[in-house]
C-alpha cells in the first residue's frame, strides 16, 4: 500500500505508522509527504482505530527531516507565494485527524522531524535520542518547525536549539527535563513496547471522548481563553448527547500506574 512508510493495525484498536526510509536517515521526500496525508485519511475513516503510534524504522535516526538530496520537492515549486509547508500533509492535526498520537523517538531527531513531534499528543524517547535543528548552520531560516515547537516547550528552549544549530544537541535527559518528552526508556525495544502499551491504554477509552479531548485542547492553542472555553462547553454537550460514555463505577476500578 505504501513505499516510504509502513502501516499496520492491531486487535486492541491501535494502529502503528512507521517512517520507513532507514537508508536515508528516515528523512521525508515528496512521496512520503503524500503517503502521510493518505494514511491520516485512512486512519480517520477507520472506526476500529482509536489511537496511533508513530515511530521510525530502526537506524541512526528517528528522522532528519527533509531529504536534502531531493531537488524537485513538490511543495517548493512555482512562484514563491504559492509554496506551501509540507507539515500540512505530514502532521495528523493539520489533516484534521483527532485520534490520539503517541510518538516514539530514537536516535537523531532534527529539522523537519519536528512536524511529527509537534502534532503528537504524547512523546516518549529512548536514551540514545538526540534533538537539534541544523537549519541556521546551513544558512536557512528555521521557522515552521520551531513555531510548532513553541506549543510544546518554552520559547527560550526552542530558540536555544534553533540558534545554536549544529553546535549543540539536546540529550534525552534534557528533553525530559524541559517537557519535550514525558518518558525516557533505556532501549529502543523498550521504547517501542512502551509506546504500544500507552497507545493501548488510550485506545481502551471511549474514542468519542479521546478524540473530542484532543480536538478541544489542540484548537484552543489557536484561540483566546474565552473562545476556547466556549468551544469546549459546546464539545462537552455534544459528547453528553452521544452514547459513548461508560459506567463511572467500572471506570474507577481500572488499574493504574503512578508516574
UniProtKB/TrEMBL annotation:
Belongs to the enoyl-CoA hydratase/isomerase family. It comes from the Bacteria. This is Enoyl-CoA hydratase/isomerase family protein. It comes from Pseudohalioglobus sediminis. Pfam families: ECH_1. One of its GO terms (molecular function) is isomerase activity. Gene3D superfamilies: 2-enoyl-CoA Hydratase, Chain A, domain 1. Keywords: Isomerase. InterPro entries: ClpP/crotonase-like_dom_sf (IPR029045), Ech1-like (IPR045002), Enoyl-CoA_hydra/iso (IPR001753). The keyword Cell inner membrane does not apply.
Amino acid at each position: 500500500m505504501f513505499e516510504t512508510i509502513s502501516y499496520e493495525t492491531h486487535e486492541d484498536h491501535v494502529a502503528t505508522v512507521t517512517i520507513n526510509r532507514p537508508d536515508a536517515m528516515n528523512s521525508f521526500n515528496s512521496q512520503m509527504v503524500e503517503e502521510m496525508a493518505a494514511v491520516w485519511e485512512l486512519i480517520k475513516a477507520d472506526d476500529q482505530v482509536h489511537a496511533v503510534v508513530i515511530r521510525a524504522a530502526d537506524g541512526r535516526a528517528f528522522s532528519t527531516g527533509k531529504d536534502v538530496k531531493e531537488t524537485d520537492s513538490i511543495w517548493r515549486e512555482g512562484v514563491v507565494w504559492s509554496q506551501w509547508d509540507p507539515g500540512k500533509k505530514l502532521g495528523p492535526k493539520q489533516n484534521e485527524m483527532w485520534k490520539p498520537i503517541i510518538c516514539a523517538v530514537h536516535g537523531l531527531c532534527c529539522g523537519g522531524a519536528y512536524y511529527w513531534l509537534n502534532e503528537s499528543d504524547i512523546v516518549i524517547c529512548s536514551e540514545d535520542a538526540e534533538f537539534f535543528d541544523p537549519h541556521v548552520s546551513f544558512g536557512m531560516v528555521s521557522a515552521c518547525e520551531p513555531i510548532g515547537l513553541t506549543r510544546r516547550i518554552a520559547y527560550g528552549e526552542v530558540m536555544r536549539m534553533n540558534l545554536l544549530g549544529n553546535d549543540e544537541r539536546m540529550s534525552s535527559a534534557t528533553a525530559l527535563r524541559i517537557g519535550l518528552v514525558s518518558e525516557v526508556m533505556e532501549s529502543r525495544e523498550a521504547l517501542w513496547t512502551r509506546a504500544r502499551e500507552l497507545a493501548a491504554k488510550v485506545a481502551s477509552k471511549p474514542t468519542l471522548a479521546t478524540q473530542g479531548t484532543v480536538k478541544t485542547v489542540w484548537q484552543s492553542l489557536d484561540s483566546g481563553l474565552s473562545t476556547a472555553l466556549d468551544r469546549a462547553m459546546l464539545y462537552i454537550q455534544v459528547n453528553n448527547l452521544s452514547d459513548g460514555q461508560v459506567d463511572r463505577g467500572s471506570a474507577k476500578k481500572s488499574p493504574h500506574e503512578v508516574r
